[in-house]
Amino acid sequence: MSFLTKIRQVFSKLITKSTIETALHIKTAISTPMASAIDLWSDMYKGNAPWIGDKVQSLGIPSAIASEIARLTTIEMQSEVSGSERADFLNTQYQRVIQELRTQVEYGAAKGGMIFKPYIDGADIVVDFVPADRFYPIAFDT
């Protein structure tokens, strides 16, 4: 396990749903049991389920299921933006996202959801993929 991964794990344990609600004076739109379930799904996907130990090993079934869902969802996917010079620029940016989509769909399926956060980086549009174990929604709408 890398040093950066260990630091992320420490921060994820320190910054909990209740910590965020108290610090920001808001109510998150996710229940404590659901937040716990998302953490469990994430641990299961990584092969770190709480029941794994000396006598119990993971077969990797959660990651295999998530991988197969992502494969079936994206295998024949074709998508593009077209119609103008601006569309051509957007399509170039968009195709970089599409190249990573299968992996990100796998993480979303395994961890209970995913947020796509586009932002400008110099002359490019890039997307930050944030799995459900890394955010707490404060509202839902249609």
With helices defined by DSSP (H or I, 4 residues minimum), what is the helix count? 5
Shape type: globular
Radius of gyration: 18 Å
Task: Please mark out the parts with pLDDT under 50 across 5 or more consecutive residues, or reply none.
Answer: none
Tell me about the biggest sheet? 2 strands, antiparallel
**Secondary-structure element sequence?**
HHHHHEE
The beta-strand count equals 2
- Mean pLDDT, all residues: 89
Q: Which strand order does the major sheet show?
A: 1-2
**Helices and strands: which structural class?**
mainly alpha
N→C terminal distance: 39 Å
How helix-rich are the residues, as a percent range?
40-55%
Instruction: Tell me the strand percentage band.
Output: 5-15%
If you had to describe this structure to a student in words, what would you say it looks like?
With 142 residues, the protein is mostly helical. The protein has helices at 3-14, 17-24, 32-45, 61-74, 85-111, and strands at 114-121, 124-131. The chain has a two-stranded antiparallel ribbon with strand order 1-2. The chain is globular, with a radius of gyration of 18 Å.
